[in-house]
Write a structure and sequence with these properties.
Domain Peptidase S1: 46-267
Strand order of the largest sheet: 10-11-12-15-14-13
Keywords: Disulfide bond, Hydrolase, Protease, Serine protease, Signal
CATH architecture of the largest domain: Beta Barrel
Distance between the termini: 38 Å
Number of domains: 2
GO molecular function: serine-type endopeptidase activity
Mean pLDDT: 88
CATH class of the largest domain: Mainly Beta
Pfam families: Trypsin
Radius of gyration: 17 Å
Protein name: Trypsin
Largest sheet: 6 strands, antiparallel, barrel
Bound molecules: arginine
Low-confidence stretches: 1-20, 29-44
């Protein structure tokens, strides 16, 4: 299973999502047009989520290769390593910020300047990367990242423009949901050796499934409130077997594990 996951590359595009049970595949860029409402009118979105309000998660970024991200500084986006191709100068990515609706005329669109993929990333663990932007985004707040594992528990918020069900379409409107923490031992029962417990933190409704991130949410933050009531990032959307399946929690990069590396990388990018 793991080697299968490793064989997948982003360039195999969205069709591969259907084939890939366990996949690090980001979604395609949003093509435009509203997603079709489900017959019966049940508004279960993002796999079990609801629409976020404009300004509710102002640090959220949509990346043009079909991933999410969060503003780490005014000109650096924290995303997943599997969303980028490597490190170095890169002007091919567009970051869209400041809007819940990607078609909103107030969207801030900024090009990338450089990418820094986690040193030593090889498809297992270490799923983080930084994107240095061509211009600083001044009027939006950044998202603090967890420096230790104290708050790696409880209920987490997930958000993104990814698929609202396995094999589903990318979304125009930002969707959000709440998922409970799943401990490493339990998550290892679901995924065995595929899981890298020190590098990864799991979350999801184990018994029922139904709520999860999905393809195209990758790179986006999983977060909660800290003791002062401020948002704190504890995870980065990474992978899962399918989406929202019972017994198969979402797997996120454990941000606290990489906090120092992320800071060092940002310093290197001059952020
Ligand atoms: N790798 C996917 C992406 O690129 C994210 C999958 C998350 N899956 C999950 N079941 N939580 O968008």
């Amino acid at each position: 299973m793991r080697s299968y996951r490793k064989l997948l590359t982003r360039s195999t595009a969205v069709g591969a999502v259907a084939l890939a049970a366990v996949s690090l595949q980001p979604g395609s860029a949003f093509a435009g047009g509203a997603p079709t409402p489900r017959p019966g009118g049940v508004h279960t979105k993002v796999v079990g989520g609801t629409k976020a309000d404009q300004g509710e998660f102002p640090f959220m970024v949509r990346l043009s290769m079909g991933c999410g991200g969060a503003l780490y500084t005014k000109d650096i986006v924290l995303t997943a390593a599997h969303c980028v191709d490597g490190s170095g100068p890169n002007t091919s990515i567009t970051a869209t910020a400041g809007v819940a609706d990607l078609q909103d005329s107030k969207a801030i669109n900024v090009k990338s300047k450089e990418v820094l993929q986690a040193p030593g990333y090889n498809g297992k663990g270490k799923d983080w990367a930084l994107i240095k932007l061509d211009k600083a985004i001044d009027n939006l707040p950044t998202l603090k990242i967890a420096q230790d594992d104290k708050l790696n528990n409880g209920d987490f918020t997930i958000a993104g423009w990814g698929a609202d069900k396995e094999g589903g379409d990318q979304q125009r409107y930002l969707l959000k949901a709440t998922v409970p923490f799943v401990d490493d031992a339990t998550c290892q029962k679901a995924y065995g050796d595929q899981l890298t417990p020190g590098d990864e933190i799991c979350a999801g409704k184990l018994d029922t499934g139904g709520v999860d991130t999905c393809q195209g949410d990758s790179g986006g933050p999983m977060f909660r409130k800290d003791d002062s009531g401020a948002f704190l990032q504890v995870g980065i959307v990474s992978w899962g077997e399918g989406c929202a399946r019972p017994g198969k929690p979402g797997v996120y990069s454990e941000v606290s594990t990489f906090a120092k590396d992320i800071k060092a990388a940002a310093d290197k990018l001059g952020g």
